[in-house]
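Section 5.1 Outputs to date
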Amino acid sequence: MTIETNDIKRAVQLVNTTANANERVGRIIGNPGTGKSTITKYLEREMGAIRIVPWEGIGEKALLALVCQGIGIFTNSASRDTLMMRLREFLQGQRVIVVIDECNHLNWKHLELLRYLPDECEVTLILSGTRIFEETFSLGKSKIYLEQLTGRIGTKQLHISKMNIKEVAGYVLKPRLSHEISKDLAKHFYQFTDKGNWRTANALMSQCERILQESQLNELTNEIISTAASTLEHIK
């Protein structure tokens, strides 16, 4: 079960705002490990979004095929033009959400293809990735496509940052512990989370749970946290 963090709630709001805008393109931005994939998986599970994860070097037709398959369109050996026509016919009048996770792997040809979805197929398109995405499109011909995309997105953006101590306690510790969490315990845990990195905090908590289980203990302590943190460093 995914904890509904403030960022998840803001992401749901972003999707709803984007779906009702004239330009149905939104963006989720965050550094690695801040929980972007957790958010996109939540949107897939709870809002019925089609979640697409492109890989580095993916071709335009392969990306299009992923979108079609996610929506439920049989691709077989159909040409790109045929798939585009099927998409338009299938999606007319529907309220489909397509989320592209790891959008840093996209190039300008991918953007041209994806632009068709909100422009002609009434799709709500959410792009999720890091700032590297902007650097990729900052030079030459690609810069034009970034400017066009930025214009479509406008203010429909969600910037994800690291958690503070209170958020780490509320979203990582509290849901997985049955006892009260002191400020001292939360502060001690926080210092090993790379200043509130979502991925690091959850990995540390998993290590703490493993130690608790192996030691047949019920209450997390500063000593267990320190031991779990040293184990994580060893794994890295």
